[in-house]
Amino acid sequence: GSHLTVCVVPDERVLEFKGITPTFSTNERAEMVAACRWVDVVITDGSIVTTPAFMSENRFDVYAFGAKDDAELEGRLAGCPELPEDMRMVIPYTPEISSTLIRRRFTNHT
Fold first, then answer.
1. Is the pTM of this model over 0.90?
2. What mean pLDDT is predicted for residues 59-78?
């Protein structure tokens, strides 16, 4: 497609799912993502469960996500159980761009 909307997960949901408070706030993370040249729109109020209705209402064609392991992938897929397979895209996990590594580097250099 020619349009990319990215949902930055709110702090409360990160805490709920990962058990940690993000290093950067929802707004700070949204600003960083918005600065990427390929991102057209950033939202922070995405649905917890992604349904075909949510996709249609927002004119989204594909729900894309990454997962660091099978357990996280299972959780991501549980968040979109009604989406047909052709509307889901699992993107490769990039271990060298891990939020855990970013936190470690930030902590070790302050």
1. no
2. 91
